[in-house]
Amino acid sequence: MLRPRSTLIGSLTIGIALGAVSAVAQTNNTFAIGGDFKIQATDRASKDDYAHGKLGPELLWRFGHGREGWGFHWGLNWYAVDIDRPIGGLVTELGELKVRPIMAGYGYSYRMNRRLIITGDVLGGYAFGSIGLVPSAVDAYERRLGAQSVTARASNTFVLKPELDVWYDLNKDFGLNVNAGYMIARPDVIVDTTTGQDKRTARADQFILKVGIVYSIF
């Protein structure tokens, strides 16, 4: 269901890049800030909580201009997914699971020309998890299982993300970014009720595609 939107964004990205070939590269950039649009997609797992992908804008920034060669990389890559869970035999929306990773890794950057640099890397780290229940989930536990109180929490977890990152300088002020990667995250989501504890692993793995533009501040 996300493929048409992904194809459209990819086409717009190529069009913008091709239309800017006569501009001056963003070579003197020290810090640039802007925004991107993120698409998340996921697969369901029968034994785990079901995680849905999301769409939406987010903040994007860039330090420096990038150098060719091997080097260390870092990233936050915070994201959220909507979780479904079987409650009383029926799959029900549980709430929004937030995954806030802090990651570092290693990769290689290849500069194809003075405008275009491509980086492939693998990031890993530790993520802090939290979840907020939706009212319909609380109601389902009360009606179907007879629970008188319902609370939920998510565990922290280790994460891994291989990714490909592309920067293209549109001109001396604007830079275009396309980032594609696969985030692996498996936090536990624990629901405590007066009838007992329901603990399941949330398969929060996400394919993440981001397309954005930054403006050079200095």
What's the order of the H and E elements?
Answer: HEEEEEEEHEEEEEE
Instruction: Tell me the quaternary state.
Output: single chain
Distance between the termini: 40 Å
- Fraction in helix: 10-25%
Strand content: over 45%
Which residues sit in consecutive blocks of at least 5 with pLDDT less than 50? 1-24
Helices and strands: which structural class? mainly beta
CATH class: Mainly Beta
By DSSP (H or I, 4+ residues per run), the number of helices equals 2
CATH architecture type: Beta Barrel
- CATH-derived topology: Porin
Strand segment count = 13
Explain this structure:
This protein is mainly beta. It has one domain: Beta Barrel (Porin), CATH 2.40.160.20. 12% of the residues lie in helices and 61% in strands. The protein has 2 helices and 13 strands; from the N terminus they run αβββββββαββββββ. The protein has helices spanning 3-18, 135-145; strands at residues 31-41, 50-52, 55-63, 69-75, 79-87, 90-111, 116-133, 150-154, 157-169, 174-185, 188-193, 196-201, 206-216. Strands 1, 2, 3, 4, 5, 6, 7, 9, 10 and 13 form a 10-stranded antiparallel β-sheet that branches. Strands 8-11-12 form a 3-stranded antiparallel β-sheet, with helices on one face. A hairpin with a 4-residue loop joins strand 9 (157-169) and strand 10. It starts with a helix and ends with a strand. Residues 1-24 have low confidence and may be disordered.
Write the layout of secondary structure elements.
Blueprint: H1 3-18, E1 31-41, E2 50-52, E3 55-63, E4 69-75, E5 79-87, E6 90-111, E7 116-133, H2 135-145, E8 150-154, E9 157-169, E10 174-185, E11 188-193, E12 196-201, E13 206-216
Antiparallel strand pairs: 1-3, 1-13, 2-5, 4-6, 5-6, 6-7, 7-9, 8-11, 9-10, 10-13, 11-12
